[in-house]
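go over this record:
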Amino acid sequence: MQIQVVKSKIHRVKVTGADLNYIGSITIDEALLDASNIIEGEKVSIVNINNGERFDTYAIKGEKNSGIITLNGPAARKVQKDDIIIIISYATLEFEEAKTFKPWIIFPNENDNSLT
């Protein structure tokens, strides 16, 4: 039997932009992607702390150490600049493997989305 578990989580980052006219996705600072073990193109769930919205999109790489967190395309309607969000990705694992799996969870600075 397989189950889905949290693989990666970027806990509480500030939205730096919302670009309705982009194709779609979320642009995430490369340093945050690396630290959370999320890869470009990976499906991610977004939870907006400010308004309760929950939706799925995919990650694209933003400039390293820029702090960028931009929602693109239709997802831009579900956030506003300066909203605080949580970014989560999941993995499907065998049940026994899932019992010992340890996710990558990071807690960036909410003010500038840095890892320090």
Q: What stands out?
A: The chain has one domain: 1-92. The mean pLDDT is 97.
